[in-house]
Amino acid sequence: MTARPGPEPAAAGPAVAEQPAEDDLRALFGRSAAVFALLSGPAHVVESANAAFFATIGEDRARTGVALEELMPELAGQGFTALLDQVYRTGEPYAGRDVEVRLGTGRSARQAFFDFTYEPRRAAGGAVTGVRVIGVETTQAKQAQRLMAEHRALLEQIIRQAPLAEVLDGMARCIEHLVPQEVLVSVLLADADGRHLRHGAAPSLPEFYNEAIDGIATGEGVGSCGTAAHRREPVIVTDIATDPFWADFRDLAGRAGVAACWSTPILARDGSLLGTFAVYHRTPSVPQDADLALTRVFAGVAALAIERHHIEQARAAAEARAQEANDALAAAVRAERKLRAEAEQRAAASAELTARVRAAAAAQAAAPRPYLCQLGGQAGCAEPAELKIADSWGDAAWGCPAHVEEAIITVRSVFIASEELGGLAAYVNR
Q: Record's Pfam families (predicted)?
């Protein structure tokens, strides 16, 4: 519907004096992007308005001759009627800057911002007859400012190495808050092999939906996200109910209350797949250029965050491996030192034992050879000691040939201990 200024009622009395000026204003603002409306009387009846005014409030409400609050019931409680009353009552103009206003109701409602002025309309005698409304919508500029602030905040989070889940969740909530219409944002992360997508962030989607799509394969026709990941290019599904890509997920989407899904792949600088960035709508929706630009901006932020996360993961893994290697080397050094200490202890003990043996041998060698047989028992033996015998335990004794023969026959482990074997030969050949 094309908005046209409504018909003006015939002016009477002193109000005629202001008619040429208001006709000029109508001409100036007729096709302007600025919002312009003439309100009359204490009820603030819309006398006339330009096309921008009706485009702002909705073409279906483009009519005149009705009170402003009747035309726009959503203004109740927002304070604007009170300001109009004030200007009408006092005759003092009012100016507002970046004032927030809720336009429309239900799902068609949107948040907007305006710079505006309310100026009193006066008759020739000076009496206030109504209010002149002139405004410029600053919603896009305001959103751009907020976008830049949120974008900067996300980059600061990435720089200070905030957890990836925190960054992605904050980014999703930021977009859902910035976009005028209701949207639900989802970020899926690619597995290392790039064949599956895992849940990354989706603060406003139902939990059952997030669980159902966690781990979906990448491939042609696998919803918006699986297809976008496979193609490495955006996939815009404006109506899930009829799109073949959603054949396997249509019931799931219906239960989640989503009807459109625009998905953009998140790519690394080398072109490898990092994940997908999706915007869901409650009703079938076609993206505008501004929507696609916003998606590209935040897909870039997501790519930066995910790449940074991967770098930190790789660095942490490398540090862990290096620490494990250092720990293993330290353990080997400790074990080598322990073995060396034990070997040195054994060597010292062996040297000490050898010294004792040598000392004992030297002591024994220095002892005089007994003159009489030592093997005669308690009765003793008066025969001269001629042969030395020893047993396997190292005990030795000197004896006469008779007692030596008896010992060898009786004790099987006894043997002749003469170094030159002369004694043995003498014993055998006697």
A: GAF_2, PAS_4
